[in-house]
């Protein structure tokens, strides 16, 4: 069994720091929530690297919000519910579509510069959206622009304390409440931080897989520590694989945005044939899980490791203006989007599941909140609609701050962390262990799954459990422990769900089964695995 704490410690012997709100992680969720909380509270923001290391920074497509007169919250809600494949929480979706526009205005107030055309915000359309509603910045560098604007505000905020290069080891709890967090400093020493509320903004689990669009920091830390603390973790079997990441010798996996297909790009197999008409009536703009599996099927049929994305029929001016970042990146590897078909293949992209929250971002542990990709608010269901994640982060970030402002102060105490007698150091090449884990997840719990493979995957993971009995101290070791924890959650959830839905596809149960499986998967360290029916009439 995975232990309660990933390291041993004696709380009585540790330095103690008190604040009001502890925000763990950066990205749009951490930055926005910290800024909002700092208007009324003392805030400590902790990042394991820096403010610029997050998935948000790499978000290209944009942020979905209803700001056009031709659009409506009902249209966005319908698109979101369809993409979510029956598992969305209708109340959470309602919150998102109605409160999203205000959040966008707040981003603008904080200094985010979205692209404009003729004095109006330039809106584009992405896969599974019925309307043009995606705001973008610098063409295809939306995430970077949002992080730039928010990070500048964070750094200049005198009421906000920032700790970069600090690793949060575990959450401190007592009597079913979160009291704060155990933090490791850059020099290896540890400190206990206590607060009125703790907010997990730690991002997703992209590094579970060999090929991912996520940065190195996406190791599921928040989900893993919440699980160890006893929080409910929901729907971890739903992983979104982005259909089109650059697949070229010598180049890292780089996201070729959904918006490229939104602007009219075709997908072709290596024989040059368009193929999406064989898989879905929406062709290249079908939901991501459909497109990703279609690409894998074409790769297998044609015995290739990639397919092509082709936008050469559009004008060079449009391509360079709309996708300057992608255009320049590809050009660095000798690929010209205006004249060349670009080789692409699916890569792990987004985690729909996470720490279960209510409509104000609070988890099953009082005073512990989760926001952004680390959370499971109910917005995304079984498959996230493109560009809804940035909107979700700001909408629920605001709601978390509203809830925190109503909390009474908490006492600065917690259960003591003495537990296992860990005295042996980790031996063996950690890089090899991590690579083996990633390859195993691709093979057994990736785009296509079945019972035999998932059981084999669990068997492999269980061989790694003795890791938790070792004395872990380096950041890489601790990240690996968190990845291993999340790998169990994904694999157990996938094994339990005997159907195919959204980002979860079982070859032995290829059909969606609403009668038996219109349910959420809940994983809890003490209570094990259970399912909950989706009550909303969607």
UniProtKB/TrEMBL annotation:
Please tell me whether the keyword Secreted is annotated for this protein. no
- State which pathway it belongs to: Cofactor biosynthesis; NAD(+) biosynthesis; iminoaspartate from L-aspartate (oxidase route): step 1/1
Q: Name one GO molecular function term.
A: L-aspartate oxidase activity
User: Could you tell me which Pfam families the record lists for this protein?
Assistant: FAD_binding_2, Succ_DH_flav_C
Annotated Gene Ontology cellular components are: cytoplasm
SUPFAM superfamilies in the record: FAD/NAD(P)-binding domain, Succinate dehydrogenase/fumarate reductase flavoprotein C-terminal domain, Succinate dehydrogenase/fumarate reductase flavoprotein, catalytic domain
Q: Which UniProt keywords apply?
A: FAD, Flavoprotein, Oxidoreductase, Pyridine nucleotide biosynthesis
Q: What's one GO BP annotation on this UniProt entry?
A: 'de novo' NAD+ biosynthetic process from L-aspartate
Q: Which Gene3D superfamilies match?
A: FAD/NAD(P)-binding domain, Fumarate reductase/succinate dehydrogenase flavoprotein-like, C-terminal domain, Succinate dehydrogenase/fumarate reductase flavoprotein, catalytic domain
Domain named FAD-dependent oxidoreductase 2 FAD-binding: residues: 20-390
What Enzyme Commission number(s) does the record list for this chain? 1.4.3.16
Q: Where in the cell is it found?
A: Cytoplasm
Taxonomy, superkingdom: Bacteria
Active-site annotation: 288
Q: Which reaction does it catalyse?
A: L-aspartate + O2 = iminosuccinate + H2O2
| Occurrences of domain Fumarate reductase/succinate dehydrogenase flavoprotein-like C-terminal (ranges) | 434-526
Q: Per the UniProt record, which residue ranges are transmembrane?
A: none
Q: In UniProt terms, what function does this protein have?
A: Catalyzes the oxidation of L-aspartate to iminoaspartate.
Q: List the protein's name.
A: L-aspartate oxidase
What organism is listed for this UniProt entry?
Cohnella abietis
Name the lineage: Bacteria, Bacillati, Bacillota, Bacilli, Bacillales
